[in-house]
Design goal:
Layout lengths: L1 H43 L2 H8 L5 H15 L3 E6 L4 E3 L23 E7 L2 E11 L5 E10 L3 H7 L5 H25 L5 H17 L3 E5 L5 E4 L1 H6 L18 H8 L7 E5 L2 E10 L3 E8 L1 H40 L2 H25 L3 H16 L3 E4 L10 H21 L7 E8 L2 E8 L11 H4 L14 H12 L3 E6 L3 E8 L4
Parallel strand pairs: 11-12
Antiparallel strand pairs: 1-2, 1-5, 3-4, 4-5, 6-7, 6-10, 8-9, 9-10, 12-13, 13-15, 14-15
């Protein structure tokens, strides 16, 4: 930076000098040209010069006196008198006598005065030519008066507006200012040179785009100042997001709240385009904030698989518990000798089980969904909750992908209903499945319902809030909504003597 500043100062001084020289040269030609023309006209108008030119041999000494006198009085560098042929008769330099007077583009031989630049004695000079005219109009001779043109140093020194002292003072100020500026900038850059700063930035960019975690920086006005490729992928942001306002991007309310700091906390969960993303926002004083993000989609999928196994275990445990109770009852009836009652008891429990299995398999032709309903029935029975199918419900055969989505949605809704009915007497859950151009899953319960102020919150936030009082909440509902939206469907909830969740899943994924 110091070298660059010094080069700029030198160029500036050189430019000032060039303009100064040009202005001085223009002033010199204008002022001295008129002065030399006046000197030559005075000499040419002198009567003694006319007389002396008629007798060139005897009057050369007298012409030399006229020339020398005019030079001394006017301050001209030279005054030359030549005859009508252009031969020098008198000059301040004796060596020029007898030589032809350089005329160049001069029009003096045609009887006109002329002012211009030419080389006199090998030196560039400003010359004025004036003809000496006789009484009858003939040309008797030529008078030339001139000044030597100043060189570059003389022109700068003679410039009235840009003297050498001013240029030297400007150079001193410029160099001192450049040194101080370079020292200040070096302190601000922690002593790093430009090449080191460049390498540091390149290293930061490589590190930023090489990590698997997403990194996004925002300023105090919530404009994106830094974003890596992983953050663009996780949040499904456009490539031109840098410099844009967070609120102007196509993000959900939940993501905007976390990125702008309206929602704070550690490990905030955001659902974005089929991904479960965990965000952590760290404010930075006078700069803004840095948001780091991790993809938890695979972890959530693993949790869902574990939840399926857990549900299977719970179902087996419930069935084992129920089977154990029945065995104890049968054993007691045998010991009491109540064989008729034993026969009726066995017929009753087998009939109930067979009836539920027959009802499920008759109305639900998808094996995975039917198995889920049978398993959830045992779990609900253990919790003292009755699980039933709506009379008009029916689900035909569907493809494996849609079956997996239906099982996930139905399982989450039934689990949330069971959680809501933990402290409810005479509790029941009703499941209705409708199969048309879309699969409709309706889950009703006899619980307290969903508080009106959190009807949207239970889906948007995807985690338990303090305002939630109906029990139908958690990440499962957020995932349910995500699955429905991914297929181009929807999920909603309303209260009708309890919570009623309705999920719609089109047959073809959007």
């Amino acid at each position: 930076m110091l070298s660059g500043q010094l080069v700029i100062i030198l160029l500036l001084l050189a430019s000032v000098a060039v303009f100064s020289v040009a202005e001085t040269d223009q002033t010199f030609r204008a002022t001295e040209g008129r002065k030399m023309l006046s000197v030559a006209e005075d000499v040419a108008a002198t009567g003694g010069v006319r007389v002396s030119l008629t007798d060139e041999v005897s009057s050369q000494r007298l012409l030399a006196i006229f020339a020398q006198s005019a030079q001394n009085l006017s301050g001209a560098d030279f005054v030359i008198i030549a005859d009508h042929r252009g031969t020098v008769l008198a000059a301040t330099d004796p060596d020029q006598r007898g030589l032809p007077l350089p005329l160049g583009e001069s029009r003096v031989l045609s009887g006109r005065a002329w002012v211009g630049e030419m080389a006199i004695g090998g030196v560039d000079s400003l010359v004025a030519h004036v003809p000496v005219v006789s009484r009858d109009g003939g040309i008797l001779g030529i008078v030339a008066a001139g000044r030597h043109s100043p060189d570059l140093f003389q022109a700068v020194r003679q410039a009235p507006e840009y003297p050498l002292g001013l240029l030297a003072f400007a150079a001193f100020l410029g160099i001192a200012g450049s040194v101080l500026l370079a020292r200040r900038v070096k302190r601000q850059t922690l002593g790093l040179e430009p090449q080191e700063i460049t390498r540091l930035v390149e290293h930061r960019e490589a590190l930023l785009h090489g990590v698997r975690e997403g990194v996004l920086g925002v300023d105090e006005q919530n404009r994106i100042t830094l974003v890596n490729d992983q953050a663009l992928r996780l949040l499904a942001l456009p490539a031109d997001s840098l410099g844009r306002d967070i609120d102007s991007l196509d993000l959900g309310d939940r993501a905007r709240d976390v990125l702008t700091g309206r929602t704070d906390g550690v490990d905030q969960i955001v659902l974005r385009r089929g991904r479960v993303v965990v965000l952590n926002r760290m404010p930075i004083s006078s700069v803004g904030a840095v948001v780091t993000m991790r993809d938890r989609t695979e972890l959530v999928d693993l949790q869902r698989e574990l939840a399926v196994h857990r549900d299977t275990t719970d179902t087996l445990r419930a069935q084992a518990h129920e089977f154990s109770n029945r065995l104890h009852t049968i054993s007691g009836l045998v010991e009491l000798g109540e064989y008729d009652e034993l026969q009726r008891y066995v017929q009753r429990i087998s009939h109930h089980s067979e009836q539920w299995h027959a009802e499920v398999t008759a109305r639900v032709q998808d094996p995975a969904t039917a198995a889920l309903l049978i398993a959830k029935s045992s779990l609900a029975a253990e919790r003292g909750v009755g699980l039933r199918l709506h009379e008009g419900g029916f689900l035909g055969e569907i493809d494996e992908e849609l079956s997996a989505d239906v099982v996930t949605v139905l399982g989450n809704l039934v689990d949330n209903a069971l959680d809501a009915l933990e402290s409810t007497k005479d509790a029941w859950i009703e499941v209705e499945l409708r199969h048309s151009d879309e699969i409709t899953v309706v889950v009703r319960d006899s619980g307290p319902g969903v508080a009106p102020e959190i009807v949207e919150e239970v889906f948007r936030h995807g985690f338990t809030t303090k305002a939630a009082r109906g029990g139908e909440r958690g990440l499962g509902l957020a995932l349910t909504r995500q699955i429905c939206r991914r297929r181009g469907g929807s999920v909603e909830v309303h209260n009708a003597d309890g919570a009623v969740f309705t999920a719609r899943l089109p047959l073809e994924e959007a």
